[in-house]
Fold this protein.
Amino acid sequence: MKKLKQLMLAGSVAFSAAGVVAEENVLNVYNWSDYIAENTLANFEKETGIKVTYDVFDSNDVLEAKLLSGKTGYDLVVPSATFMARQIEAGVFQKLDMSKLSNHKELDAAMMKKLSALDPDNAYSIPYLWGTTGIGINVAKVKERLGDDFPVDTWDLIFKPEVVSKLADCGVSMLDAWDEIVPSVLNYLGEDPSSTDKNLLSGKVTDVLKSIRPHVRYFHSSQYINDLANGDVCLSVGWSGDILQAVDRAAEAENGVEVAYIIPKEGAGLWFDMLAIPKDASHPNNAHTFLNYLMRPDVIADITNYVWYPNAVPASTSKIDEEITSDPSIYPTPEVAANLFTFPVYGPKFDRQGARMWTAVKSNK
Amino acid sequence: MTNPVRPAQFLKSFGRGLVSGIPYFWLLLFFVIPFVIVLKISFAESQIAQPPFTDLTSFADDMLTISLNLFNYIDLYEYDLYLDGYISSVKIAGISTILCLLIGYPIAYAIAKLPPHARNLALMLVILPSWTSFLIRIYAWIGLLKNNGLINNALLGLGLIDEPLVMLHTPIAVYIGIVYAYLPFMILPIYTNLVKHDHTLLEAASDLGATPAAAFFKVTLPLSVSGIVAGSMLVFIPSVGEFVIPELLGGPDTLMIGKLLWSEFFNARNWPGASAVAVVMLIMLIIPITIFQRYQAKDLEAIADD
Amino acid sequence: MTNAGIGRWSWMALVSGFIFLYVPIFILMFYSFNESRLVTVWAGFSIKWYGELFRDEQMMSAVWMSLKIAFLSASMAVVLGTMAAIAMVRFGRFRGKTMFTGMITAPLVMPEVITGLSLLLLFVTLSQALGWPAERGSVTIWIAHTTFCMAYVAVVVSSRLREFDRSLEEAAMDLGASRLGVFFRITLPIVAPALLAGWLLAFTLSLDDLVIASFVSGPGSTTLPMVVFSSVRLGVSPKINALATLLVLAVSMATFIAWWYMRRQELIRQKEIQSAFNK
């Protein structure tokens, strides 16, 4: 065992002597499921000869637990921006080597500025894809219950008890993510969505959530996609891409269900999924090569065409299907975009309070 | 049993040592040490770092200081949802265990009564559904139980009900899910117990004029107690901490300790708090179980001594 | 028990039990032939999902990975669990026995999240201190699964050992059989049903585990439940139904062939005995 250890040590010394030993031609990527175009990896392997091991996850939770425990074995991971901010603070990632990222200039400057609130100087990460947290509705059922004239582009649909109570019988669902719901409620109430005021949380916000709780059938972050498409629920607070998937599924199934995604006029939360390299990655060079590849307009345009989430490379827009770029629920109009806010990052104390408030609301206690 | 020859004695104790030593060592390495890590975390404080909790030991001025933080345990006591969650978990697990026993015992009994060549086939049939993925079985139940699901549509079509029965996202769905998932865990131990029963006992009982029912309650049931105990343990213990089933089938107000722990760990990012819950849970379940097993072992020894 | 004939009540219990167990399975088999992507809406017969399943390399490799790990974990768990059960039931009192019994049942009690996390931290610490495991993957999943599966095996096997007539073993021993000989010729055949039951339980537990495997897996070691779970976000794909159907069919075929073969052997033997008598 001792010998083995010495050998390993020798190995790691050789590795850290930057570039003396060439990296193996492999790259381990950990990304969300169904979140890349079909040919992206194959083309990359063809172009560079780097073999990609591509694993998928379904929630930030397990990714975060792995990152915080250390030595994930992955060279590139894709956390959401608020999670990433905390992980940067925990010292999980390494700084990007800008000299290896010649395509970095392609990124949307305004967006990078917004993101620098979460990643100072954008030193650790680049944005991959982004979207909003809004409302998905079953158009016919909502109209039937609220009347044809009811304006549906508002958070009143879910946060006003008089309105949501009329929809309870056809099914209302909500994301099981308090750190996105609480800012949305704050914004709806006209408060600062990134407020970490305890009294606000336990006061006004809790009151709103408790008042609508009896009308919510379930809290879940993925089940609603199918349920919306099947007509099992008629209103879901959810993520743009997921609800657009439901729109697509319902249309494909020709089951008479029409689903629509709404970014309410009061404004909605904006989320980003970020690309970052763990500090203990064994193939950082390859990870940089892949990052640079993903910022190429033609590559990222392919991805957007496939997954229907907007990206952060403006030059790619001309290569994206008209159908996607002209859809205001995917690419918000400038007026809508002005009202979008980014989700805040919470400290441990507020995290605990928020999570417990949420558990109490959910369980009706 | 005693053997006076020395080398044999040595071999015997060596063999014994190996038989108990190997699993002991394995559990020490892969259960006890990890558990000590959990115990350690439960006395720490959460922080934004890698790993996300404070160290218990620190060196300052050449002095080793160990700081145990009892906050998580006090907090456990003060946060009343935990107690509610624990009680409701034990209740749900207990009812599910009884349901499993009521459904599983007759099945195990019937399988044990089958001709020998058919038993293994029936046993495989019991276990086979579990070889499809657990998650899709749960999703199949969602498809059955939901408001416009198959059961409701069938009942509506037959005119038995006018409005769909709300089953999904209720405690009923959780019971169905747990019973469905854990039924093989009840059937198998009871079956392995029943199948070795000596049939002559039953015949003797019926020769003495006992009705089949009386023979069953007087002879078969008492003899199968250890199978029932094993099966109940395998159903009850894991379902107390069950997470996936209440999460997918239960309603938001189905409070279970597994769900609370999950949200403490992932949503509140409170690893120390979640570890404290696990430690307390382990103690609250393992002590009664060990005491119970000791009594069982004593009974056995008493029988052996007779 | 012998062929005392299986009564009416037993038949009813058996049939209704199997209906309960198999209704969801038949439903998901049925929908694997659904044209539509939505699992619960029937849109016509199609076998396209079977084609898609075989083209999905990620899922196919996850299936093999899961079956391999489940087989190895179940086998190891049966060996360790049986040893533990023998030590618990047979060795009378020994030092540390209470701790031993507690330790064996404890993995049943630990919530999966905590088991997963604690093993993850152990592996990280070990790899920092000893350089092993250099990378997490199928070996670490195997270790984790073996650990919690052996608890189940120990419970099942010890329940059988407790009620077993030791006079047989003693008789054999009196006749001069060695300890090991007695174990293999007498003890093992008697506990065999419990070993089979324990192995089957362990296999299914390992095959179904999502949470622990997610924690202790590494790059390139995705198991089936992980693939299923990460894809259910977009609704259960009928591909997964197709996979479940194939698994059920393959296992039931294999079981049936094994049963049929054994049954035939038995009948041949009976015939031989009979003809020997007739002569």
